[in-house]
Amino acid sequence: MFYQLYELNHAAMAPFRAAADAMRLVYANPLNPFSQTPFGRTIAASLEMFERTTRRYGKPEFGLKETVVGDSKVAVREEIVWSRAFCNLLHFARNTPSGHRDPRILIVAPMSGHYATLLRGTVEALLPSADIYITDWVDARMVPMTEGTFDFDDYVDYVIEMLHFLGPDTHVIAVCQPSVPVLAAAAVMEEANDPLSPSSMTLMGGPIDTRINPTAVNKLAEERPLTWFAENVIMNVPWPQPGFMRPVYPGFLQLSGFMSMNLDRHVVAHKEFFMHLVKNDGEPEKHRDFYDEYLAVMDLTAEFYLQTVDQVFMKHSLPKGELIHRGKRVDPAAIRNVALLTVEGENDDISGVGQTKAAQTICVNIPDDMRMHYLQPDVGHYGVFNGSRFRREIAPRIVNFVREHSRSGKLSVKRVIRGGKSA
């Protein structure tokens, strides 16, 4: 009943939230003389804090309307090019001149509570140099029970289907959680001698082997049996959502876990936001933009969540050679023709240093000249795929690696990056 109570509480707060937002507009209106006083700004700030902390944040938009290709600005059009019940494949179509050729990249976004828009910065940084597609996972609470289930095997199958849809010489990037199913998909395709296997595979901050430098997230999974997770965090979607009665791992639980890991940082950020509003200084829009994204969460299907906890964090099936897909063992040693780049953050507190690099160890048959590992200094988990250091240090390395290992003729590689730790 916890999920139902959560929904009931949110509905009960709706009129108070609407009233608070209306009063905030009154006190923030420049025609109101109180809006220019500390008293008026304090009232407006308090009302905004109340409205924001009781709001359900909807799915954000990517909002990428243009990019720069070469020296020219070009328009970008977002379109769904492939669709299944639990995922849409988005293409950021650039209005480039006829004959212009850039590598085609499939970004597999994490299905771990946040929407794919969490990777907006990733897409934005790569878009000038590549033809970008990204998985837009569907909130499980919005998928009717008649659409069936979605588990780890289905995830791997979706990745394979998307690579088949995109065609030859596609490069794949997995950010965090999908590193395991993406590597599994590549192994399945290579073992089947699939000509549409990806040209390269970039794994970023992913839990390939969580026995290495285990973090608090990893330890939590090992401290309790799988039955505890099934009994305590799996809930049925309440009425009147389209996915009514579907068993899910609610996004708000995942969000509470993320926030509890750095609770003091979030408290300080909100306190500073409040003071900036009262003093009418600082950059409150940056706070709003960040938390509009961070607090927007989605539900995961129970079967996928529990299998991930069991296979990735408890049994460590992939690095031990025991991962099964559709009744057959996944063999990373089958990967011979897919170039491998692994990227980690020095201060990552979700996927510890060495966990992603483990892919280099288990993929034993990838030639040395088709593999590379990079450790980015001074960044945490989110800095691996977003932020200034990602744009300056990591994104150029990814683009260079992808171009260097394109199968349809070598693309030009711009060696303009310095610093960092490569191996």
Automatic annotation (TrEMBL):
NCBIfam families per UniProt: PHB_depoly_PhaZ
Superkingdom classification of source: Bacteria
**PHB de-polymerase C-terminal domain spans which residues?**
205-405
Please give the InterPro entries that the UniProt record associates with this protein: AB_hydrolase_fold, PHA/PHB_synthase, PHB_depo_C, PHB_depoly_PhaZ
The protein's name is: Polyhydroxyalkanoate depolymerase protein
One Pfam assignment: PHB_depo_C
The protein's matches in PANTHER family, at most eight in alphabetical order, are given as:
BLR0908 PROTEIN (PTHR36837:SF4), POLY(3-HYDROXYALKANOATE) POLYMERASE SUBUNIT PHAC (PTHR36837)
